[in-house]
Amino acid sequence: MAKTWRWESDHRCCATCPPDSSLVYEGGEVRYLGWCSDVGFGGGYTIGVQTIDEFVTRGPLDETMPPALIAEIRAYLTAA
């Protein structure tokens, strides 16, 4: 079953976009997603992908992810 977590991040595609990111767990991997509100691009985009093992052992690709959220995601992924 898919699950999504969101947090404020330093990743922005342009100055007018919100500083947020999402991590989506689905199909044995986690995907980091961003959102662009620019009318010339607009829409979601992938920041990166990790396997569950990579996330659990190495940590997230996004260094701005809050430690409490990392712990919550690790607990969820290891229980799944």
What does this 3D model show about the protein?
This protein has 80 residues and is α+β, with helices and mostly antiparallel strands. Helices cover 25% and strands 38% of the residues. β3 and β4 form a beta hairpin. It starts with a strand and ends with a helix.
What is the topology?
Layout: E1 3-8, E2 20-26, E3 29-36, E4 43-51, H1 52-58, H2 67-79
Antiparallel strand pairs: 1-2, 2-3, 3-4
Compact summary:
25% of the residues lie in helices and 38% in strands. The chain is α+β, with helices and mostly antiparallel strands and 80 residues long. A four-stranded antiparallel β-sheet has the order 1-2-3-4.
Which short descriptors sum up this protein?
2 helices; elongated; 80 residues; single chain; 38% strand; 25% helix; alpha+beta
Give the radius of gyration: 13 Å
Order of helices and strands: EEEEHH
For the report, how would you describe the main beta sheet? 4 strands, antiparallel
**If you average the pLDDT, what whole number results?**
84
Judging from the principal axes of the Cα atoms, what is the shape? elongated
Termini Cα gap? 10 Å
Number of helices: 2
Structural class: alpha+beta
Strand order of the largest sheet: 1-2-3-4
Question: Helical proportion?
Answer: 25-40%
Sequence stretches where pLDDT stays below 50 over 5 or more residues:
none
